Amino acid sequence: MKTVGIIGGFGPETTAKFLMLLISLWQKKNKNNRPEILLWNAPVDNKIEQEFILTGKNASKLLPLLLTGARKLENGRADFLVLPCNSLHIFMENIRESVGIPVLNIVEETTKFVARKKINQIGLLGTKATIESGMFNSHFRKLNISVSVPEAGDQTNLNGVIHNLVMGKKSHKDSKHITHITKKMARDGVRNIVLACTDLQLLPLKQKRVNLIDTLEILAKATVEKMEEQ
Questions:
Q1: Would you list the domain boundaries of the chain?
Q2: pLDDT tens digits for 39-91?
Q3: Which of 31, 121, 126, 129 has its CA 20 to 30 A from that of 90?
Q4: List of E strands, the chain
Q5: Full-model pTM
């Protein structure tokens, strides 16, 4: 069994959900024991995180935290690392260069999942930073998978929804914002939508016209597979 190190805290409830999902997935395959997991929870400044989510700014102020967490987990004898936050994958190469152990990439794992399903068009829901970074787009377009993103006004509302979730707030209004966006994408012919923000999985999103692709679950399954390696 390999030991996974989780760079967590972006936001806390999603980190906790990811931890429990790992344990659940592990025990479905390994009923006689539980997995070995190290978790580092980032002491992130709320104002910096808020500005990053709502505007995409101040991202560089979060990088030192990520590198500190990665090194602490490596020093704690983690065999590999995961970061259950899509937006902060803009720093994936920085994190990989800072440690001597593998780091799973949620964008790469999601791309592999979509390719296996032979999907040729996806909608993308994430923070402003995720959308504008183009990290999902570049991976999907290499495989000739077209990408649709929310209109500007919808993206602003989506940023607000994500910020509420990170701050531990949920509301029916937030769920309605997401449904409004997915319905518009469905009218444009999109049938598969990637939830490219792991916090969105905290909302009760029931969709009839589209299939929602859960990046948190994809990363969790890839993590368990890596943990099972000898």
A1: 4-105+218-228, 107-214
A2: 999 998 888 888 888 888 888 899 999 999 999 999 999 999 999 999 999 99
A3: 121
A4: 4-8, 37-41, 80-82, 121-125, 146-148, 192-195, 211-214
A5: 0.94
